[in-house]
Amino acid sequence: MLQYPDSIAITVTEAPVQNASGFFTAGASAVYTFDCRAEVNGIGRKITGIDGAVIDYVFEVYMPGTTTIIPRDSDYVLNTAANGIYTGKIKRATNGQLNSRLWL
Question: Residue 81 is part of which domain span?
Fold first, then answer.
């Protein structure tokens, strides 16, 4: 049995930058791919956002520990062995000592 049977690709885009002329240029973007384990939120648990709002989520994703900062609202493509392919925006991310977690 694999600890991380699924995979996720996350696109992190930086905010637009204003140059000296006053024009905005698109921020750089990077795509990160991780092995992961996606667990369905089958009992309706909720998380609390940065602003204190209560947020519903569909998947809680566990990944090997990483130092990559994944901002809220980054785009993702989740490929699960059991449930298929899902896309959307990340609702919350944390990097712990032993693993990293995402809420989608």
Answer: 6-103
What's 71's domain CATH number? 2.40.10
Place 61 in a pLDDT band, splitting at 50, 70 and 90.
very high
Question: Is residue 46 assigned to a domain?
Answer: yes
SS (H, E, C) 38-99: EEECCCCCEEECCCCCEEECCEEEEEECCCCCCCCCCEEEEEECCCEEEEEECCEEEECCCE
Count of the separate structural domains present in the chain: 1
Percent of the chain whose predicted confidence (pLDDT) is above 70: 100
This prediction has a pTM of 0.85
